[in-house]
Specification:
The chain is of the alpha+beta class. It has helices at residues 2-17, 29-36, 55-61, 65-68, 82-91, 137-200, 206-237, 247-258, 281-298, 356-366, and strands spanning 41-45, 50-53, 100-105, 111-123, 126-135, 242-245, 266-271, 277-280, 304-314, 317-324, 370-376, 380-388. The two termini are 73 Å apart.
């Protein structure tokens, strides 16, 4: 069995050897390498006359060997490249080897782009130049297409960006105008409702009184919504004015303002030692207020509300963490969490406009940071926001 396997291996080796070129054992191995190299190679003298070329070069240019060896190297260049070729020749006087990009023409008139590498050698006592030629036409065409595609893509991106900015500007202007113009009629509704409540409530039955209460409640809610829409619109028009912010103080002040009327509620507020950050103070104060306001709101059903604030550094950013033991939310709806007017809880359970977290997202975007959250239903939520250091 072993002998049969050896015979088969020998047979395979003989078959492979059939494809080998026979070379002259007594000849110069470098001459044989020159002859059979797949890289077109030309040798010319200092008068630019071609004195030798390998088979690959003869095939590439499409001439017979006899005709090819009658050419000067300049005959193979396109006319516009002649001056460049002369410059390369002059450069060869100071450099032994260099690589240049140039264009050659074949016998049939077709042109190809090549990377030519001329090298100086001495052939006996005669100085000659070997030119190694690699056709890079396909590579150049591919690069040209990629460059063209990139330019077209950049133009499209610029065009779409301009259109998007225009639409956003129009939307911001619309939001601001509508919100501002709604104030006057809303104020009238609110004032007349108060007059009805103060001067005529005794003349109304129970249902009438409840309707007045409902009108007053909803005008207050609408007023808050307008305030927040105007805040979003203002954020879109402003640019961040960064300064060193004492985040410890920002969180302390925001919590103090939010809990002035907490009544009988028991809230455990744990504020860790926080690092300062470079940010716009007005924007960051609004962000912190919104996050703490949510934590206070959604822990309301708990006998003891627990809110914890901490921070850590990661990947060149300072990450701030606001954790609570509130009702939490279902993570399958996470994609909606930071969208404007999106609410993950019923209005009857928790009041709000659905704008607060969208403001948080906008503020963080202005600071080139990120914001994200983790939560489980009935187990609380944790919000993170990062600001580059």
């Amino acid at each position: 069995m072993k002998k049969e396997e050896d015979k088969q291996d020998n047979a395979n080796s003989i078959d492979l050897l059939k494809d080998f070129q026979q070379i002259d054992e007594g000849g110069d191995i470098f001459k044989q390498m020159f002859k059979y190299s797949i890289i077109p190679t030309i040798i010319h003298d200092m008068e630019m006359t071609i004195i030798n070329a390998n088979d690959s070069a003869v095939r590439e240019f499409g001439y017979s060997r006899e005709d090819f060896l009658k050419k000067k190297i300049f005959d193979l260049h396109i006319e516009s490249e002649l001056d460049h070729s002369a410059e390369v020749l002059n450069q060869m006087q100071v450099e032994n080897k260099l690589s240049v990009e140039t264009s050659f023409k074949r016998k049939d008139g077709s042109v190809f782009i090549a990377e030519a590498t001329p090298c100086k050698f001495m052939l006996g006592n005669k100085p000659v130049i070997h030119v190694f030629i690699q056709d890079i036409t396909e590579r150049k065409m591919a690069m040209k297409k990629i460059h063209q595609f990139n330019n077209e893509l950049e133009d499209q991106v610029a065009k779409r960006t301009k259109e998007l900015k225009l639409k956003n500007s129009e939307l911001e202007s619309f939001s601001y105008t509508v919100s501002h113009d709604l104030r006057a009629p809303l104020r009238a509704i609110s004032n007349y409702s108060k007059i009805l409540n103060e001067d005529y409530r005794s003349n109304l039955d129970l249902d009438g009184g409840e309707i007045i209460d409902l009108i007053m409640k909803n005008t207050t809610k609408m007023s808050h919504l307008i305030d927040e829409i105007l805040l979003v619109s203002r954020l879109d028009r402003e640019t961040a004015k960064k300064q060193d912010i004492n985040m410890q103080q920002v969180f302390e002040n925001a919590y103090s303002d939010l809990t002035q009327d907490k009544g009988e509620r028991k809230i455990e507020f744990r504020l860790g030692k926080l690092s300062n950050c470079q940010a716009d103070k007005t924007m960051i104060t609004q962000l912190v207020t919104n996050l703490l306001s949510n934590a206070i709101k959604y822990t309301r059903p708990r006998e003891i509300s627990k809110i914890e604030v901490s921070n850590y550094e990661s990947d060149g950013s300072c990450v701030y963490v606001v954790k609570d033991n509130g009702v939490g939310f279902d993570m399958q709806y996470y994609d909606r969490l930071f969208n404007i007017f999106e609410r993950l809880h019923k209005t009857s359970d928790f009041d709000g406009t659905g704008v607060g977290l969208s403001i948080v997202r906008k503020v963080i975007e202005y600071h080139n940071g990120t914001v994200w959250a983790e939560s489980k239903l009935n187990e609380g939520s944790t919000f993170y926001f990062s600001i580059p250091i």
